[in-house]
Write a structure and sequence with these properties.
Elements (H helix, E strand, L loop, with lengths): L2 H4 L6 H27 L1 H8 L10 H22 L1 H15 L1 H21 L3 H4 L2 H31 L5 H29 L2 H8 L1 H5 L1 H13 L24 H29 L2 H9 L3 H29 L1 H24 L5 H19 L2 H6 L7 H16 L3 H12 L4 H18 L12
Helix pairs in contact: 2-6, 2-8, 2-9, 2-12, 3-4, 4-8, 4-19, 4-20, 5-6, 5-8, 5-19, 6-8, 6-12, 8-9, 8-19, 9-15, 13-17, 13-19, 13-21, 14-15, 15-16, 15-17, 16-17, 16-21
């Protein structure tokens, strides 16, 4: 009997498609909300973090940089609870199955997001408003931390042979759809509502829309099938343990988590600098209107979305390493020149459009193969926890702090190219870790 004979049979195509749909739906809800929060950061700053908050058109301006920094501090705090969620829900997914963990995280995310849409502002209840908002962001951070590990494990374990990169890329693609839907919803509201109404009550609408979206995702996940060959539920000695004490396995998995963080730090930093922080940066640093900033964000997310699935598919053919290296090196070399070109008064409109589409596409080269690359680093018994923790830690440090760092540094130095420098530096630092990828990992069966 050969090693191949011991591997589980490939899952039926119908089960694979259902897993892909159910896993993607929760990601869309999660990142829709994060996109909305980024788009409405200046409005949230005025309503929750400014003592003199009003509901007029100038409320966001009166809030100033300090209120925006406080908004992103709340944003960052949610990210630092993601590793806790990755450990908590990852252990549930590894011990009891992918479905229970994924049902729990999408339910918690939907509840917290909907409650943000119902939350009284600082003008209504005073200093309690920002604390309540921060508490709900913490709950979102916990659920988001468990989402990635469970969803990517589910998708890649159900993937047909030779399609793991493509199936994993759907996680990133629905991230792009969520961000794009959030930006498009915000742009539509900014177009049809007067500024006064948008700042007063219109900002609540996108958060409340998470309720029906989450209900659909919850319905899809309750009907999930566990991947074939899944281990039986029961106690584990430790994350990744291969001996009775678990010491050797823990050391191996800790090293894998650290390496995973290094490989995706550029993806995390560039993704948030370009896809989430951009609207408020264009407004606060460059004086762009709310509508123009949202339009630029929609375009960069279009470029991101368009490149993800082709990048995942390409990585199934040529390997994860060359595709992800192209994305990291592209951002490291081109981010600053592209931003300067975008900011130049003499740059034509069509060139600006090409710039933001290119920036998004470079991030897509990292995000397409990234989920499958992480799934291939961990054995099945600790996959939810291991890859979820790698992703959560990278996002906590390099994404959660992105808005806070960029906004504060741009305000202090007056340098409007801070987002590009931040993304370029993180991608340059991730290159050595990406070089450690082996060329044939994408052809090997999952452990």
């Amino acid at each position: 009997m050969t090693t191949t004979d011991l591997l589980p049979a490939p899952p039926p195509r119908a089960a694979a498609r259902r897993a892909l749909l159910a896993g993607s739906a929760g990601n869309l809800v999660e990142w829709y909300e994060f996109g909305v929060y980024g788009c409405f950061a200046t409005v949230i700053a005025a309503n929750f973090f400014t003592p003199t908050a009003g509901t007029g058109a100038g409320a966001g301006v009166r809030g100033g940089a300090e209120a925006l920094v406080a908004t992103y501090a709340s944003f960052a705090l949610a990210f630092f609870f993601r590793p806790v969620g990755a450990l908590l829900f990852g252990r549930i997914g590894d011990r009891f199955g992918r479905r229970p963990a994924l049902v729990l995280v999408v339910g918690l995310m939907t509840l917290a997001t909907t409650l943000i849409g119902l939350l009284p502002t600082r003008a209504d209840i005073g200093a309690a408003a920002p604390w309540l908002l921060t508490l709900l962001r913490v709950l979102q951070g916990l659920s988001a931390g468990g989402e990635f590990g469970g969803a990517v494990s589910l998708m890649t374990e159900h993937a047909p042979p030779g399609r793991r990169g493509l199936y994993g890329a759907w996680q990133s693609f629905t991230v792009a759809l969520g961000l794009l839907t959030g930006a498009a919803t915000a742009a539509a509201l900014a177009t049809v509502l007067p500024v006064e109404a948008l700042h007063s009550w219109g900002w609540r609408i996108p958060f409340l829309l998470a309720l029906p979206l989450g209900a659909v995702a919850l319905w899809l996940r309750t009907a999930l099938e566990e991947p074939s060959g899944a281990p039986p539920a029961g106690p584990r000695t430790a994350i990744g343990s291969t001996d009775p004490t678990g010491t050797t396995g823990v050391r191996e998995q800790v090293r894998a988590v650290v390496l995973g963080v290094g490989r995706i730090m550029g993806w995390s930093a560039a993704g948030y600098a370009f896809l989430v922080v951009l609207p408020s940066h264009l407004q606060s640093a460059l004086g762009a209107s709310f509508r123009d900033a949202l339009l630029a964000t929609t375009l960069v997310n279009l470029g991101f979305a368009a490149s993800i699935l082709p990048a995942g598919l390409l990585s199934d053919r040529v390997g994860r390493r060359p595709v992800m290296l192209c994305g990291a090196l592209g951002v490291a070399v081109l981010a600053v020149p592209l931003l300067h070109l975008f900011q130049s008064p003499g740059t034509a409109t069509h060139v600006r459009i090409a710039v933001v589409l290119t920036a998004g596409a470079m991030v897509g080269l990292l995000a397409g193969p990234g989920p499958a690359m992480l799934a291939e680093m961990f054995p099945r018994r600790v996959r939810c926890t291991g890859l979820g923790l790698s992703y959560a830690l990278a996002n906590a440090v390099f994404s959660g702090c992105a808005g806070l760092f960029i906004t504060a540094l741009a305000a202090r130095t007056g340098n409007t190219a801070v987002p590009a420098h931040y993304a370029a530096a993180a991608c340059a630092l991730s290159v050595p870790a990406l070089l450690t990828l082996r060329g044939n990992d994408h052809r090997e069966p999952l452990r």
